[in-house]
Design goal:
WalR-like, cytoplasm, DNA-binding response regulator, Arc Repressor Mutant, subunit A, alpha/beta, activator, 12 strands, 227 residues, phosphorelay response regulator activity
Length: 227
């Protein structure tokens, strides 16, 4: 997911900060780091932060105290990390204003899923729109605009365009696209139906349709940047 969200990681362990930063960078998040609650407060004063990953056990100012102080001034989501398994600690963090809680050790996939879910809830308008240059898709309304003008697409055309745009640069075979858009349980037969929908989609998008690239011998991809 390409985005401009900035996440503040607050943890006194350098290895943990580095590991979390790597996971987040790989998902195209911008990352800031702080070693304790005091430093986190300073970072929030100087930077716009969309989400905070906050460790509980830290020197100088622990995560609970930091959470309370942050919540007195800011409303961005707070995801707390702890090695403790005590249910009371979880409840305490949530009562102080944390939005979610992850226990160490944690799965990177679970952590990233929780981060995305928190950002999605707090930035619903951002996640509702997928845009690449002149093509804009508003998912809640299932509307497509090209250069500001509404384009009417059939259901499968819309699904195909959105899927390719959300996976910009990735190549998908006709079989993969058929399974995703038409479903695994539908009769496959010939995959010409994928070719037909791509052709119609390109026609309706006019010049912008050239962004749907044919990868000969494989399938299709969406490429926003001209090469």
């Amino acid at each position: 997911m390409k985005n401009s969200f900035q996440i503040l990681v607050v943890d006194d362990e350098a290895d943990m900060r580095e590991m979390l930063g790597m996971y987040l960078h790989n998902e195209n998040y911008q990352v800031l780091h702080a070693e304790n609650g005091e430093e986190a407060m300073d970072m929030l004063y100087d930077h716009e932060v969309d989400l905070i990953i906050l460790d509980v056990m830290m020197p100088e100012m622990d995560g609970f105290t930091a959470c309370k102080k942050i919540r007195e001034r800011y409303m961005m989501p707070i995801l707390m990390l702890t090695a403790k398994s005590d249910e009371l600690d979880k409840v305490r963090g949530l009562k102080l204003g944390a939005d979610d809680y992850v226990m160490k050790p944690f799965s990177p996939k679970e952590l990233l899923a929780r981060v995305e879910a928190l950002l999605r809830r707090s930035n619903q308008a951002f996640f509702d729109v997928v845009s690449h240059r002149e093509i804009t898709v508003q998912k809640s309304a299932r509307q497509v605009h090209v250069g500001g003008e509404r384009v009417n697409l059939a259901r499968r055309e819309y699904d195909l365009l959105l899927f390719l745009m959300e996976h910009e640069g990735k190549v998908f075979s006709r079989e993969q696209l058929h399974d995703v858009i038409w479903g695994l349980d539908t009769e496959k037969g010939s995959f010409r139906t994928v070719d037909t929908h791509v052709k119609t989609l390109r026609f309706k998008l006019k010049d912008a349709g050239a962004k749907i690239k044919t990868v000969w011998g494989i399938g299709y991809k969406f490429e926003a940047e001209e090469t």
